[in-house]
Amino acid sequence: MFALTSVPSIQRCVACIFALCVGCHSETPTSVAEIPERLLHILQDGEAAEARADRHGAEAAYKRATQEFGNYSSSWSYYGEFHRFWSHDLTAAAQAFNHALKAPLATNVSIAFAWRGLGEIARERGEIDQAIACLEKSLSIKPLVDAHRSLSALYATEKHDFELAAKHARAAIAACPDDAIALLQYAVQMSRLHKPHEANEAFARAIQIAQCDEEGRSPRPVHCCVLYNGACYHAVRGDKRRALAMLEEFFRTPNHRHITREDILRDPDFESLLNDSQFKVVLDSYLPQE
Questions:
Q1: Distance between CA 278 and CA 286 in Å, rounded?
Q2: Which of 80, 89, 135, 238 is the most exposed place for a label (fewest CB within 10 A)?
Q3: Number of domains the chain contains
């Protein structure tokens, strides 16, 4: 299970935006007055570029934000998340997040988001205790949906503590009821904990919000993390056909490479498929062994 998201509009992918729930971790409305209007427009340009899967446009916008408004933590938090989620440059991402933490003009949201980003980087590097510390620090500053999603994924995948994973998914939903990724994380754990009614309700709500069917098909872009976690849900409940169908939809998104073959193979959600020949064919088709 993964919650690697990075976006701000109707949500985090095939266009891969920053969040499925508008405003759930944005700078509005509580912090808007602290950010210059010009900077807000630049960040919105970056979000719009992400929504169209325009990586270069997004990068240009966020880089411009740091150049024109380098004293603001928001500029660096967005730029860091771009590097982490889009360019997969963990060194550049960490540098940007640390710039955010040192910026003289800060908002709680952007500082919390920077700590969350550092937590994801630590997790990527296998520094699990450090990742938890950073994510807990993020929550202590402001309880962002993103940090709860990250902790839900970490506890499920790295610790196999599915009760804690469910707790953080539930907290993310409480903060933003229309967050499709959090709903899917919750659905996975409810299915694993033998609560099918809650699992089915959460999954149905998630795909309604994401505007896709049970196999991830849609005429509109669907966030890659929706598709991945949807595949996890089907795999945990034993529906191999739908799990593979949704996994293939995930692989068709432009930003699926933020999850590696190794990540998938160690994900407990896919444990039942590890020796399945069709599962191996799908992986080999999109992520061939080197």
A1: 13
A2: 238
A3: 2
How high is the pLDDT of residue 30?
A: 37
Asked whether the predicted pLDDT for residue 34 surpasses 90, the reply is no
More confident residue, 7 or 222: 222
Residue 8, in any domain of the structure: no
Provide the whole-model pTM. Answer: 0.88
> Is 91 found in the same domain as 164?
no
Residue 98 lies in a domain: yes
Task: Say whether both 114 and 182 belong to one domain.
Answer: no
Rounded distance, CA 5 to CA 28, Å? Answer: 19
Q: Which residues contact 190 (CB under 8 A, 6 or more apart)?
A: 166, 196, 198, 199, 202
Q: Is the same domain home to 159 and 241?
A: yes
Residue corresponding to tokens 């967005």: 78
Q: How much is the mean pLDDT over the chain? A: 89
On whether residue 171 sits in a domain, the answer given is yes
Residues 6 or more apart whose Cβ sits within 8 Å of residue 138: 112, 113, 115, 116, 119, 144, 147
Residue with tokens 């994401």: 210
3-state helix, strand, coil in the chain (%, to 5): 65, 0, 30
One-letter amino acid at 130 equals Q
Helix or strand (DSSP H, E) at 174: helix 162-175
Tokens of residue 148, six digits: 């709860």
- Pairwise CA distance, residues 100 & 77, whole Å: 6
Domain membership flag for residue 126: yes
- Is residue 17's pLDDT more than 80? no
Q: Distance (Å, rounded) from C-alpha 228 to C-alpha 244? A: 10
